[in-house]
Design goal:
Shape: extended
Structural class: mainly alpha
Number of strands: 2
Strand order of the largest sheet: 1-2
Helix content: 55-70%
Distance between the termini: 15 Å
Length: about 240
Amino acid sequence: MYEEQQNQNNPENVQPGEISETTTESSDSKTPDTTNNTTNLKKSVFNIKIIAAVVVTAAVLFFVGKSFVVATANNSPVFIWDFYNEMKTESGEKVLESLLTRKVIRQEARKTGVSVQPSEVEKEYNRVAESADAQGQDLEALLTTQGLDIQSFKDQLELQLLIRKMLADKVTVTDEEIDSKISENADQYKGEDTTTEKFREDIRYQLETEKLNNEVQPWIDKIMEDASVRRLINF
């Protein structure tokens, strides 16, 4: 279990500007124009408050009418809090831990100066798509069966690439290891030109992934343990 420490966020609360009602001291020399200006200012302030109240009320009514209902069954509403509570009960803890882990991984990447460019994500996506196609499968169809769209999958790829870069020194693959892999699986690669650069790079990637799978969980456990994580919800 990860150590949970106090780490309160203190976002700056910006209060909306208020128009003060100016009071002018009475004087025998006050002119009628000054009195009218003061009266008009008070009326303007009053009107602004009324308009603001109407806008807020309209927004609340819209929110209640639209956002609080997530579905209907024979015109009977399913409210968002019922939906939320059900999700929380069934998979809330798992989802929360996933969100926390992803956030800490990205924080670690920023701390170590590691980043991933969109072009790198596209290259990785195309590599996966080509691999799926070579096996007679369509990547988009596979994603759909797992409840993922392309952008969600690319977000996952970006996170994986960040991890791969941060653990690069632990997943280095030598030419000797590539040769050994090809030799050990000669029957599997029969009929393929194992000397091409692309083939050897594919083998390198496979070996890096195998090493990464062995290293990633202990690494995640360590950065989560070092992070100041505070869970504010019970399951």
